[in-house]
Give the backbone structure.
Amino acid sequence: MSTPTELRARAAELESRAHPATAGPRTDDERMFLEKAAALRLEAAWCDVQENLVLLAAPTADRVRDLLKAAMDARDAETILREGNSWSGRIAPLILELGDRVNDTRRAEK
């Protein structure tokens, strides 16, 4: 399994293969690179959240993990962002970033 840093580096490398959106229509390959980059960034955000869920009590961590995993599978960024807004401290920005990455993935798939 790759670390979040390695996943983000791979995503940046894939994104660098696509020209800016203002340069004209993207090719199928460029769209594929951007979709894969969005998926890698989502995976990195999920890894970050999972690493920090250990800071929570076990029943709470299990509830949050199950909720976030179900929302990710359904591409339901609203549920993830709502959960992130209910937390404070170190875990909150990680959950919010996860919600943002789900949104990015949904946009890349369109």
About this structure: The chain has a mean pLDDT of 92. DSSP finds five helices and no strands in the chain.
